[in-house]
Design brief:
Keywords: Lyase, Pyridoxal phosphate. With 359 residues, the chain is an alpha/beta fold. It is 43% helix and 14% strand. The relative contact order is 0.18.
């Protein structure tokens, strides 16, 4: 299913606050922060010539965030960056601070990692359905785990409520009214992905297919491309699970929409029912289309990366991590979608493997 962005503000410049976070100066600040980290290494950008030929494209490249900072996910760049920024601004010592968040796994690992680096405390609220392996991976960084029986969006609300009561610093990667700065800082951390990828490309991409849960990664990438390239920016296609397509439904309705209930999808890191306020504000301007993919499409894309053909390298990606690629494959094989998105033999497409496959 494909929904083109028909918003009257599609293509308009970002709001000034978002442009400041995702523009040249904001991206440079994030790059400088990580360049000073001993563990920092750019993640690889892989060419997939065999799959590009199969899909009728000039070039297909995948940025492999499964190797990011040893945490296995792009989210390593967001939570830890926000924690460090908040600690630097706090009046007291960092080791007296408590950072809290709700997460299905990867964001919590980043927050816990950032807190551990500072000698601070992290409290992680875990929604229902999160695997024991993901919980253990967060606890390994010394975080206190709080299990809930709620879906992700309700766990976010619970974490915000308790953090407010106890004076903890809430580090949520989804924005809501009155809470926008920290999610924006997290998105600024994600711009490192775009800076690394674009510097490794001989030519800018014509298209980006990028997955979304609440939209932080998609918003960061779309916003960075908009601030860097302006009217010449690549086309951005946002891909979500069919059972949790809150951004696509928001685009269809022309307003931010919250879906009802839990989606239930193998793309568990994307199983979100309400977009981030900041991400939606950016994507309404800077995304060109929204689409949804089913669980089988994600599983097929995962297998295609793991067991490639020709000269394509083998890449470990989880179902959530390869959702953008699943969207590309679906669109490229559909003549109507190819035409609507301008996909052809001259297209240079960029996708992101946002997380490695779970053990």
């Amino acid at each position: 299913m494909l929904v083109l962005n028909r918003s009257p503000i599609h293509g308009a410049p970002l709001e000034a606050s978002d442009a400041a976070v995702l523009g040249d100066a904001g991206a440079a600040a994030a790059m400088a922060f990580y360049a000073a980290e001993e563990a920092y290494r750019p993640t690889p950008l892989h060419d997939l010539p065999a799959l590009a030929a199969e899909l009728g494209l000039e070039r297909l490249v995948v940025k492999d965030e499964g190797q990011r900072l040893g945490l296995g996910s792009f989210k390593a760049l967001g939570g830890a960056y926000a924690v460090a920024r908040l600690a630097a601004e706090a009046p007291g010592p960092a080791d007296q601070m408590t950072f809290a968040c709700a997460t299905a796994g990867n964001h919590g690992r980043s927050v816990a990692y950032g807190a551990q680096r500072l000698g601070a405390r992290a409290v992680i609220f875990v929604p229902s359905g999160v695997s024991e392996g993901r919980i253990a991976a967060m606890a390994a960084f010394g975080a206190q785990m709080v299990r809930t029986e709620s879906p992700y969006d309700d766990a976010v609300a619970l974490a915000a409520e308790i953090a407010e009561e106890r004076g903890w610093a809430l580090v949520s990667d989804t924005a809501f009214p009155g809470y926008e700065r920290i999610p924006s800082l997290i998105m600024q951390g994600y711009t490192v992905i775009a800076e690394e990828a674009l510097s490794a490309m001989s030519e800018p991409p014509t298209h980006l297919f990028v997955q979304a849960g609440v939209g932080g990664l998609a918003g960061a990438m779309a916003g960075r491309l908009a601030t860097r390239f302006g009217e010449r920016r690549p086309k951005v296609v946002v891909v979500e699970p069919e059972r949790a397509a809150c951004l696509m439904e928001s685009a269809r309705a022309g307003r931010l929409v919250r879906l009802g209930g839990g989606g239930g999808t193998v793309m568990s890191m994307l199983d979100c029912q309400q977009p981030s306020l900041v991400a939606w504000r950016i994507l309404e301007r800077a995304a060109d289309a929204f689409m949804a993919v089913g669980d089988e499409g994600a599983a097929q894309a995962k297998r295609r990366l793991a067991r490639p053909v020709g000269a394509d390298p083998a890449i470990s990606g989880g179902e959530s991590g390869v959702a953008g690629l699943a969207g590309l494959i679906r669109a490229a094989l559909d003549p109507a979608a190819r035409d609507e998105l301008g996909l052809d033999a001259r297209s240079r497409v960029w996708v992101i493997n946002s997380e490695t496959a779970a053990p």
